[in-house]
Amino acid sequence: MINILLVEDDQKLNKLFYTVLSKQGFNVHIANNGIEAFNILENNHIDLIISDIMMPKMDGYEFTENVRKINEDIPILMITAKDDFNSKQKAF
User: Fold this and answer.
1) Residue 70 and residue 19: Cα distance in Å, rounded?
2) Cα 48 from chain centre
3) Which of 7, 27, 59, 73 is the most buried (most CB within 10 A)?
């Protein structure tokens, strides 16, 4: 089974993503911020991370940067309500 880590502070979006991904057969782990996400990463094998950019405690940019220090290969899909080019460029 594929394990997905969803890092999103909006509870409604968490529920929506969880429901859709679970119905497709994925095992979904939910974190509300980057700190919670690292706790999940320490204790679980994760195949894909889906991360919001704008979150409390540790934003998606910082979270992704720290993930890359420990695992360069895990795919990370970043989601955001930001629509400016600089935010998108920074995420890449």
Assistant:
1) 29
2) 8
3) 7
Decide: helix, strand or coil at residue 61: helix
Three-state SS for 64? Answer: helix
Summarised one tens digit per residue, pLDDT across range 29-86 is 999 999 999 999 999 999 999 998 888 888 888 999 999 999 999 999 988 655 555 5
63 and 40 in contact (C-beta within 8 Å)?
Answer: no
CA nearest neighbour of 78 among 66, 57, 69, 90: 90
Tell me the CB-side half-sphere exposure of residue 20, using CA atoms within 13 A: 7
Beta strands in the chain (DSSP E): 3-7, 27-31, 48-52, 76-79
Structure tokens that stand for 90 in this block: 């920074």
The owner of tokens 């704008």 is: 54
On whether the CB atoms of residues 30 and 24 are closer than 8 A, the answer is no
- If we measure between CA atoms, which residue out of 6, 3, 91 comes closest to residue 47? 3
